[in-house]
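Re: uracil structure - here you go.
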Amino acid sequence: MNPVDIIIKKRDGGELTRAEIDFFIQGMTSGAIPDYQVAAWAMAVYFQGMSAQETADLTLAMAASGEQLDLHDVIPGAMIVDKHSSGGVGDKTTLAVGPIVAACGLPVGKMSGRGLSFSGGTIDKLESIRGWTAELSEEQFRTQLREIGLVVAAQTADLAPADKSLYALRDVTGTVPSLPLIAASIMSKKLAAGTDAIVLDVKCGRGAFMETLDDARALARLMVAIGTLARRKVTALITQMEQPLGLAVGNALEVKEAIATLHGNGPADFQELVQRVASEMLILAGAAANSDDAQSQVQRAIDSGAAFDKLRAFVSAQGGDPVQLEHPENLPGAPVQLAVPAPVSGYVHRVDAREVGLTSVALGGGRQKKGDAIDPAVGIVLAAKVGSEVNAGDPLCTVHARTEEAAHDATRRLQAAFTIAPTPADPLPIILDHVTA
Ligand code: URA
């Protein structure tokens, strides 16, 4: 077999066999197939798509590209749950949901990713906390899962290494928003990480890789089907990503918002999403009898402070400074903060999440090319969302930047990202659909 023939077959719309997919993924993982051929293949997949069979084969090949964890001996009899987002702007859900669910007594063993294109990544966000590391050995992962009940780790080099290389290449070759590549990327990690139950948060809208409800449903159904095939319990929520989630976009800024949410003071849309995802995890794993029971467990974990305590315990266990969580004002802060004024009075009809995400990347909060360093302090904090009434000159958001020049560039982009009109607009719902097996 030859990588060029496989690229050409996909470029011309052919359906790859299991053997061809295995060959390509093995070659990519071992380094025998160079980045430029993988990038060409990813672009061919982007344009030609993949059948359900090819996507399932790709997922299994990527899951089998490295070690596959079995966590059942860590806490005998317990179900290990996870959640995974398909990626969005301001999406700090894991930072709040993980501690809540773990505080309810359900072990959460999570492999998370870094930022991808305009969407942020949980690992980048947590790395804003001084000393925190995502690089854990399998032994450390197991010990922490047993002792604390919550781990958020980067994919180890051994776990779905094919996804690790492909993910980094897709980020910088314009091949992220491909339904089969996203489905295989997410599900290969989940299958390899040994999780029993997975709640998928499929984002939909301008700030997501799936912009329409139809595409988001197709991705959700595909991932639920792949998970069910692999005998995992999987459910998917389709959630709003037309505008950024919550108010904060940017790494340390999002950690602060997640902390506020664990104290019960988060923005309404984010608080609602967090409580719903956490409830779904409890229900899916059989730790709650029904949705009322799940919601009251979640509320108790927040009100009692148990969820925040769990955040502190897990961050400390991974080397992070717990004082920064107790005093979030000590998290990295940007030297320049500039309010972006509303150019006219009216109601906010649109906040273009993608543009806000790209502005955050341009400020240094994300990567423009593979391996770029992230600036944890920069980002944007919204002051208005869809449905808000604003007067000309009111702040639409605040830019947190390294330099005055960067702040002014961001201000121009952000003003254009808001659509303000004279007629009232309804706030956007956060949960759009629920796809079950
Ligand atoms: N999250 C992932 O893990 N992979 C993708 O491709 C997109 C979002």
